[in-house]
Structure formats: C-alpha cells, structure tokens
Fold these 3 entries.
Entry 1:
Amino acid sequence: NPCATPINAFPWTENFDAMVTLGTDIVPNCWLTQPTAIWASMNAAAISYNDPCSGANYVTCYWSPYTSTDKYLITPAFTLTAGTTYNFGFKWVGDGYSGWNAEVRYNTTQTGTGSTLLGSAFLTSGTTTGTSCVANTQGFTPGVTGTYYFMVHVTNNVTPYYLSFDDFSVT
C-alpha cells in the first residue's frame, strides 16, 4: 500500500503532470478530495477559464454545489518533527470571477472535519480572481512529532466557476 508510510523526505513536490488518467475525483495516490464530485484533475484543454501553472495538468474545484458546502483537497500524510518549521506551498489560479473563499488547513487525520486553520484566508469572496497563477506558502511548526495532512479548504457562492491548484510542495 503506497499510503501506509507517511512522506518523510523533503523537499516534496506534486505538480500532477505524471497523471495519465484525468477526471472528476481522480487525484494522485494518497490524496483525498472531500466531498466527491467537486474536485477534478484536468489539463489546459479541459476548460477555458484558466490553465495549469506549470506542465500539462492541475486540479480544479467546481463551483457547484455552492453556499454551505465545504470543499477539501487533502495531501498525502507527512511525518513532521516537533519544533521544525515546514513550508506548505502551492499555486492557485482563478477564473476572472469573485465569490471564492479559500484557506490552508491541517489535520492529523485525512479529513477536513476537525482541521485547523493555518494563517488566514488567501482568497475571500469579495476578491475578483485573475487567470494568472499566484504562489501561496504557509509555514507550519508542529508542537508534536507525528503524522500531518495539509489541505486547501474552499467555499463559494453562485458567481464563480473554477478555482485551480498546481505545484504543491512541502519544504
């Protein structure tokens, strides 16, 4: 089982370009999307609202359902050492619309339920997103050595269409 052992070699990166099969709820091994039918791996030809930040593939969050739906894209597990600062990074690209809320969270289990906010939101609903990639990095220093998962948490209203993510890293 490729997910039985948390990642403990850094730097770690994922740009989704090794993926051969793309589509709804199709993400690399050990990643998780919550709930189903909201996240999809895509390439530049899949939609006209935005493109990958590098290479051919990326992951996109659909606008529907909207309002109260919490949408999570969750990384594989990482073994992190107490007192060491790690930087969780990625690039995001919008669709030319406002209505997105997005933030970075972490948890000790692979779920958005009970996760903890890291920093503050990197995107709020009043912001009109551009179609150029924006880098986002959030530092994290665990208080206890153990297994951790990072995640992007998204909510939105009815206005936008696609919020996309690429070039994840933990350094």
Entry 2:
Amino acid sequence: MDMFALNEEVTRLEAALLPTQGVARLPVLIPLAWHLRQRNSARAQSLADEARDLLTPILDVRPEMRPGMARLQLIRAEVKWLMGELDEAETICQLALSVFQEIGDPVGASDCHWLMALLATDRGIAGHIDAEMALALENARRAEDGVRAQLCEAAMARSDALRDFNAALERWGQRLDPDAPGQHPAVSTFVVEFFGFTAAQSGDFARAIGHFIRSQALALETGQVRISMGAMTNIGNCFSSLNDHHAALEWMQRGVDLARSTAWPPRIGNALMQTGETLRLLGQVDAAQDMLDEALQKMTPLAGSRGYAICLNYLADLQLDQQKYAQALATFRQLQQRADVLRHPLIARRRHTGARPAVRLHAAQ
C-alpha cells in the first residue's frame, strides 16, 4: 500500500467501493481509509471503524488479514496525532508496530516509525525524531520500497535544513532533485520544500516563495494536508520578510481557512499564531492578541514543540509592542526553558541575542 496516493487514485477507490457489500468491501475500504487520513480524517476513521467491524469476526480464520487490522490501528493513531492526542496516538501506534514486526511486514513498520518521528516532533524531542526516521528508512529499504525510502531521506533533509541549512545543503543538495524524472509527487513535495527552507534561510525569499507554492500544490495533490498548511504559512513568512505584510496576511488566512476545515486543534493553533504575528506587524495589536491567545489554547497538547515555542516568541514580541514589559519578560523566560531542549538555531538566536530572525519557518510533516 502506497504511503501517499494521488487524488485521482482516491477518486478511483471511492468509485470502486460503491457497489461492494460485506467483507468484499475490505480490499477497497482499508486503502481508502488510509488515503483519507489527512484529506478527511473524520471519514477515514469512520471507514476504518467499519472495516474493523468486518474484520473482527473473521480474523481468527483469516490470519492473512492481520496486516489490514494493524493498518486500521495506524490510521486511528494518525488521526489521534492530528488531533493533538499524543499519548493515545503513541500507544496505538506501538500496538500496530508490534503486529507488523511479529508478522514481518517492514512496510507497516516503516510507516509506524514515520508516525513516531512526527510524534517526537510535536513533543520537541530532537534525538527521537532522528532515531525514528532512521528506523523508518531502514524498514523501507528492507522492504525494497524505493518511494518510502526517498520520502524518509527527504524528510531527514528537511529536518537538517532547519538546524543548519549550510550543512544540510552540503549533505543533501546534490542528492535531492525536485525535478527528477519519474519521482513520485509525494517525494517531490518534501524535496521542493527542502529547497524552500534553504533558500529562505539564505535570504532568497523570492525563490523560497516559488518553492513553497509548488510544495503546497503537490501536498494537496498527494493528501498531505498538514504539509500544505505549513507551506502556506511559510509563503506568508517569506512575504513578511520582504515587508509585504498584506500579501503575507492573504496567505496566512488561507492557511487558517484550511486548518479550520480539518478541525485539528493544534494545526488550527499553528495557523492562527502565524496570522497573529502578521497582524502585529500590520499594527493590529488587538486582533493579534486574540489570535495568539486562541493559538496558545489550541496548541496546549504540543507545549513541548518548536511551534509552541515560536508562538511564545510571537506573544513576547506583541507584549513588547504593547509595553507590557513584565509580561514579556515572563514569556521570554518560558521560551528560554524550551530553547535548549529544542536545539533550534532560530529560537536559540532570539534567546541569546534578542535578535529577530529574518524568517521563522513552519516545518509540519
């Protein structure tokens, strides 16, 4: 089963499901639920529940269906992650992983480690992110799944780019090609975004915007809705760095609209905080305050993440603009508590020097 499918494949699965009944639905029901997990997570969970109810009575006599049941658990785990229910997501993911390992399914194991890396990202545990993604890559290679292996490498490159873009370019710049012939669009999504990150951090914001616009479109085509939201905010951040705050606000609002359509509280919070910062730059401090207050509330489950730390940074900037110096100091102290754990150069720079980085990139996976 592909990790990400094109929209046309999802449309084909939808049509194929219509005439089926009973257990005959399972060969279509499970992949459709999998590929809807970000496109429409509520429906994905509903289809997964239906598939589970069909599978449960026959699993003892049809052991070959165990990978399907584990895949349904993984769908549930990813939906929990998107909703910010990290502990439940990890528990369910570990259960799925144990099944995939027991039956010798490296593809399923790779997808579980991928999700564990995303959970570590939202918890701000840098070492675990790298370790889990390395395991995802190892299992993809064991399965001889070239697309999954390329996805893992591209995700690792993006992570490296946010820590040290010069070192990342040296390591990955010649290995990654956004226009490689035959490259799966899901892989291109990550590769293009990698070059967007490196361009933005080198100050070439116009080129970065082009990369992020392309990445955003590829993400929507391949069902990577969270990546698409992140790309929109990155486009907005680049426009802000070019002092075009009105264009920035337009892209930020698109991100908010997409985030609200998903009903994923932490992802809505991420979009709101970026919009709040843009409103602050436009001098709309009251509206910015409302946005940042709501963002912090929705992002509470991700309090250890880089995104939450950046939201604190935005709030402290706003408090300085409002001349609320005692509150700003308290907020900066909260930020300081997270800086060392996150090991992120843009946050650390602000902590140690008080300088505002040229662009704060959103790195959703």
Entry 3:
Amino acid sequence: PSSGELPHQLPGHRPLAAILGGFLVLALSRAATEAPSSNEAWFASPALNLMERGFLGTTILEGRGTWLADIDRWTYWVPPAHLLAQAMWYRLFGFGLFSLRSLSVLWGSVALIAFWALLRKISGRKELALLAAAILAADTRFVLYSAVGRMDIMCAALGFSSWSAYLYLRQSSVGRATLISHLLAAVACLTHPCGVLYVGGLLILQFLRDRAHLGWQAFCLALTAYAVASACWGAYILQAPAVFRAQFSGNISGIASEITAASRWSGLL
C-alpha cells in the first residue's frame, strides 16, 4: 500500500499484534522455565553434529542391539526437516536449550498467524478470527509445544500455512496456489508424520472450493511438490536404506509397544 493508505490499514492489525505479543510472553516465559526433557536432547544432538561435524547422527543414544542401531551415524527414526532447521538456527544464534526452544517459539508465532488468516478467510469475520486466535494463543497445550524443543509446532505451522496459502493464492491462480500450498504440506510431512493430516485437509479444501477447476495440471503440480520433497529425503535415505527401514518402522511401533501394550497405530485407530 502507498504511504497514504498505511494509517488506515495499521489499526486493523493492532489486536492481532497484541494477541501475538501476549503469546510471546507466555511462550518465552515457559521456554525459560520448563524443565528439560530427554526428547529435546535426542532431537538437538543430530542437529549439533550436522553443524559441527557434518553428519546427522544422534551420538547421545546407544542403539546397538535395538531398532535404533547405527543411530550414531544416521538419524532416520524421525523426518529430517526439524533437524535441518535447528542446524541453521544454531549457526545464527548459537547452540543451547533456550536457542532450541526459541525456534519453537518462532514456529508457534507462524502457526498462530496462519491460523488467524485461515479463519478470517473462511469466516469472512475479523472479530471471529481474532477471538479464535486469542483462545489459541492462551491454550496451555499450544503454548507448551511452542516452548519445548520438539518438531510438533513446526509441523502445525507449516500445515496451517499450507491451508491459508491455498485460500489466499487461489484467487489469482489455482495452479500457483496448488504448488505452493502442497510444497508447504510436503515439508510438514518431512517435519512430522502427522503432516499427512494437513495434506488431507488441503485436499478437502481444494475439492470444496475448486473442484470444477481441478484437472491434470493441478494434479501434476501437487505431485511435483511431493516428488521434490521425497527426492530430498530419499537422497539421505539412500545412504543406508536398511538402517532407515529399521529405525523408522521401529519408531512407528517400538516406543509405544515397549512401554504399553498399545502401538501408535492402535492409538490412531
């Protein structure tokens, strides 16, 4: 907008800025005070090794004799996007627990804004979108996962962003909206397996809004996004395919079944 339009535009964003500010206070406070968890160390180790030693191994876990064998050389039990994001983040801001957690706070902010934009577009009501964003910003679970060093909030941020991107970009080009939104959803899948849920939601959005305009071009564009993501991860998997199969399949059922009689799949069902 031109400089003459700015005074009119800014007041509408002040409530969102206030909500975001309140969320940052809650998330940063929790990031500074929450007791460390073993999960955070498991996910920080491969990122630190990548930054300092050039390989994505988890050197603080002993995997010999388990489905985590060779994890000190290759970390395959989780998708790699969060680990790569950490490595880049550490290069900029240094390594440490709060540095790891501040990355989650950043993704939490992205998720909050994307959620607000999504509901504003779907409902057409600014007040409703702001109310929903305020509730989310104060939600205990949302604040917690935005303040600990796990990949969940990054996956959610990319997922919500994929839905919002499609709804806003489709007005000018359904093809461009398809490609960009599915690229975001593909990276969500490379962050956490639950990213597939955002892929499903995105497909539902496309069908409900543009089923009359969807054809082979849209299908090929969406397929391209997942092909690129798969190729990137596949290049790493090909370094040790047997290790990948053992670790990734072990994570699907191993951790849950070692603690309880249930597996991740039974929980999903």
